[in-house]
């Protein structure tokens, strides 16, 4: 009976091609939309992860500026200053740290030959290259020896290299920063733009002491970056860093901090929650198409029952039971759901690749989303096929045979 019902369902679909196509279209579009939208949502999550990981993993960013005694928040960088000695104290007293650096930055005009470019100049310690996941493309990175001698050397990003030294090898050449000559000793591999849209390759990195003493005339640092050993200890590290800085800055119990600590792990968790909400929203919107497709199945099955009333009467007169008729029409509805589901998967996967290729948006195809969409499409066919199938099974054979 099962094989015969499936064969009859397929024969009925083939004999009414246009009606079948229009019925399938709702399911195909629904399944395809769910897969494409969920893939787009997962692509957003991957972009967020990649952009934050480019900034470094398990990081704490410590900057000057907290709240005054009155509770008013200071602007970033204002209030008590962070110092290189603060960084050394954190490195010495806090457990669970795998790396630490201090930095200052500002924008300067850069000149090389007849080319000029304005870029962000960052003065930092050698450890910052490893904390921020910078990779060297050519040349070398500066060392502690360059720091101690306040050497006029710099490492530049790809954007700076392309604009100041088009077609040339920058390593070993001289460029001027604020009219002061610096030797380019290295070029960094491209990191692309950050999650905030900033070009991470548009940067010049010089030794911290050179920036403080030769360029900016300051003794403080603008930011201390602390890298925890792993995500399990980052909150403990943050608490210890806060305690060390409160002690050094002589902040009394109950007073506000004069510094701010940003936890990159917490920021990533918050952004992941937002991305998950977006993915769920996209999936729910697309699932509405599946619901509309299910209504189309019910509609077409009701029409089919009406058209085949006499056929149903003949079957019941020949001995077909309630369950036989019910099963026949349920299988027809499920076949529509199965066929529409698999064609919809092909459409959804193709749409995901198309969005990635033509729009340039990252998409990640999820297998569980495909499985759920197909199961849901079959369930839709079954659910919306119950009423028409039951209506057919309950037909009185005498009335059905009399129907014209």
Biggest sheet character: 6 strands, mixed, barrel
Kindly report how far apart the N and C termini lie.
27 Å
Adjacency order of strands in the biggest sheet: 3-4-9-6-8-7
Q: Give the % helix.
A: 55-70%
Radius of gyration: 33 Å
Shape: elongated
- Number of individual domains: 2
- Estimate what percentage of residues fall within beta strands: 15-25%
The count of DSSP E runs of length 2 or more, i.e. the number of strands, is 12
Overall mean confidence score, pLDDT: 82
* Residue windows where pLDDT falls under 50 for at least 5 positions: 68-74
Supply the helix-strand structural class: alpha+beta
Query: Helix segment count?
Result: 13
H/E element sequence: HHEEHEEHEHEHEEEHEEHEHHHHH
Structure description:
- It is elongated, with a radius of gyration of 33 Å.
- The chain starts with a helix and ends with a helix.
- It is built from 13 helices and twelve strands.
- Helix 9 crosses helix 11.
- The strands form two sheets. Strands 3-4-9-6-8-7 form a six-stranded mixed beta barrel. The chain has a two-stranded antiparallel ribbon with strand order 2-10.
- The chain is an alpha+beta fold and 404 residues long.
- It has two domains: 183 residues, no CATH class; 121 residues, no CATH class.
Short note summarizing the structure:
The protein is α+β, with helices and mostly antiparallel strands and 404 residues long. It contains 13 helices and 12 strands.
């Amino acid at each position: 009976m099962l094989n015969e019902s499936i064969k009859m369902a397929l024969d009925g679909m083939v004999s009414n091609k246009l009606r079948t196509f229009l019925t399938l279209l709702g399911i195909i579009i629904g399944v395809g939309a769910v897969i494409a939208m969920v893939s787009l949502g997962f692509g957003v999550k991957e972009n967020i992860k990649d952009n934050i990981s480019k900034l470094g993993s398990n990081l704490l960013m410590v900057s000057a500026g907290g709240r005054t005694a009155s509770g008013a928040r200071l602007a970033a960088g204002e209030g008590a200053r962070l110092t290189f000695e603060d960084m050394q104290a954190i490195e010495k007293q806090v457990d669970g740290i795998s790396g630490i650096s201090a930095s200052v930055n500002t924008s300067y005009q850069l000149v090389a030959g007849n080319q000029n470019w304005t870029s962000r100049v960052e003065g930092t310690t050698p450890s910052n290259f490893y904390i921020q996941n910078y990779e060297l493309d050519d040349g070398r990175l500066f060392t502690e020896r360059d720091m101690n001698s306040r050497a006029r050397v710099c490492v530049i990003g790809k954007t700076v290299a392309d604009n100041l030294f088009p077609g040339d090898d920058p390593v070993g050449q001289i460029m001027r920063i604020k009219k002061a000559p610096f030797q380019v000793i290295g070029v960094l591999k491209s990191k692309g733009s950050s999650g905030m849209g900033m070009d991470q390759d548009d940067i010049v990195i010089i030794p911290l002491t050179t920036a403080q003493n030769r360029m900016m005339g300051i003794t403080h640092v603008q930011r201390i970056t602390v890298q925890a050993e792993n995500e399990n200890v980052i909150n403990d590290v943050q608490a210890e860093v806060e305690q060390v800085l409160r002690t050094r800055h002589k902040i009394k119990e109950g007073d506000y901090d004069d510094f701010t600590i940003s936890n990159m792990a917490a920021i990533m968790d918050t952004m992941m929650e937002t991305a998950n909400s977006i993915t769920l929203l996209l999936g729910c919107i697309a699932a509405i198409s599946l619901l509309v497709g299910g209504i189309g199945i019910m509609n077409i099955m009701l029409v089919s029952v009406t058209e085949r009333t006499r056929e149903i009467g003949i079957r019941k007169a020949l001995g077909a039971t309630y369950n036989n008729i019910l099963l026949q029409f349920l299988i027809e509805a499920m076949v529509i759901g199965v066929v529409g589901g698999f064609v919809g998967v092909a459409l959804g996967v193709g749409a995901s690749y198309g969005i990635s290729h033509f729009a340039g948006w990252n998409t990640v195809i999820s297998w569980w989303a495909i499985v759920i969409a197909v199961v849901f499409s079959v369930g839709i066919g079954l659910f919306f096929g119950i009423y028409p199938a039951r209506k057919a099974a309950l037909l009185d054979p005498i009335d059905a045979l009399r129907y014209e």
